[in-house]
Amino acid sequence: MRNCLPPVPSDLLDRRATESVVRHRLRSLSLYLRSRHRCALSLAALLALLWGSASALAQSQPGKPPSEEELQASLEMARSTVGDHSASSKSGARKFDLQALWSMAQGRFPGIIAARQTVDSARHARNEQIFLRLPSADFSGFLSWSPNVKCKDTGEIGADGKPLALGGPDHCVETNIAQTLNTSTIQNYLPFYGALVQLNLRITQPLYTFGKLTAAWDLGQTGLDIASAQSDGVRLDHQLNLLRAYFGLKSARAALDTVKEGHEQVTKWVKQMDIDLEAGKGSASEIDLMRLKVAESQIELILIDLERTIGSTLAALRYLVQDNTVDVDEDDLALWNEENHPLDYYLEAALRSRPELRVLRATGQGAQLYKKLRIAELLPNFGLIVNFGYGYAGGVQDPNHGFMSRLNYLGAGVGLGMNWSLDVGPRIARLQRAISDVNVFESRKRELLGGGALEIERAYNDVREAKRRLKTAEVAERRARGWLQGIKQSIDVGTAEGRDMNDALRTYFEQHIAVLRAINDTNVACGALRRVSGLEVIPK
Predict the structure, then answer these.
(1) In sequence order, what are the residues at sequence separation of 6 or more whose Cβ sits closer than 8 angstroms to the Cβ of residue 533?
(2) Distance CA 441, CA 437 (A)
(3) How many structural domains are present in the chain?
(4) Where are the beta strands (DSSP E) in 343-496?
(5) Could you tell me if residue 438 is inside a domain?
(6) Which CATH number does the domain housing residue 463 bear?
(7) What percentage of the chain has pLDDT greater than the value 90?
(8) Which of 1, 112, 130, 199 is the most buried (most CB within 10 A)?
(9) Alpha helices (H) along 330-423
(10) For residue 38, what are the domain limits?
């Protein structure tokens, strides 16, 4: 058999064109940056849509109802989030402080886990670019029946002791069934002259692509940076939501205890006034009694609202922790992590570590890299190609001419290959679009940076305002407490009656609840300030 090398393929390095994937990712990220609203639940839904669609399509069919196993699994998942969330449910629950609750939540909450998995996916996508620099191999095989080709002899004997065959169409003829037709054997109807086997291996090593491979790696790293920043944003959003649930539950329970105390006092005075009226004692009238009873009913309505608030807040807390048995600790509600830094501290922290700004910077770098990739697309790719080929036809007599054999061959070769796409028009248009995207991004960058600064300033002012409200509420509470104590002393010495306690008691409880609300608002405002600054909302 003769040496016969298959022709060099024209599709050198075509499979390495990964820029379409990168373009799609950058476009999605640019859409993400156009919104200044941050919502952990919406981000989790977006990730589920982007990364879960493939598995959903693979495991389901259009219009196919879920199986019984799927329904039961979904039902169990739903049951894990419901339970007894009433105000009295804390007796058998496990109690934790805020740091402990966060430690549990970050390893359980699906949104946080999905965000980390997205980072892993982006890391794998980046690592794929490593293999673009390594040799690639393509193998193909073909098996069929062999034609029957006979060649005239030259009259000479070759080195193998067999007659040499003449080459060319005049001396080599492919037989057919009609030429050998007879009725004696089945071979006439199912002629078989041997197998036709063809095996080909091509190895391609990129040598120079004018920066395409480097740009692909850098774009993969940019995608990883963006995914990491988005994951941090999901984590910080969850911390803030957990902080709100934690202190909201504490403040609601503290308010419930206060209102219960007031309800007990009013109920006690209603009974005493009723007894005094029946006995004809004191100066209280039926109108005074009805006024106290109305106040008693109003307090009962407040108790119902507080119990409902506690139940919903506890349910939210347990959902955020993904544990239906947890509860907050029984420490008194107090200022948790007071922020006393100047405004510049938070502005600098945001520029360093705020996830949204990190996404902004990474997306800007990605836009520049994408433009670089489009420029490189206008230039060719060079590579080293190694070919191995083997062909064998059992029914074909090898002619005495190597270039005449297309079925019997054994060869190998190495050479330089070039691939240069000449569709310049569309490529120039894509380059112009990439340049326009860079310009648009630079304009949007200024807007987003300014909006981020205003958001930080607003959160900073919210903290200051919450602290001022807290101080004012504390002063009002002290004055109301003094008023109430004065009324109690007057009642003890006989200069005042129980009916005089109505306004004083109501004012004191209102101001005490106002203090509780102000403490909660201050804690939440401090957490929100740390969130927009890119700082850990729940520090270790």
Answers:
(1) 346, 347, 349, 350, 354, 456, 459
(2) 6
(3) 1
(4) 381-393, 409-419
(5) yes
(6) 1.20.1600.10
(7) 41
(8) 112
(9) 343-353, 355-377
(10) 14-47+95-137+210-323+356-532
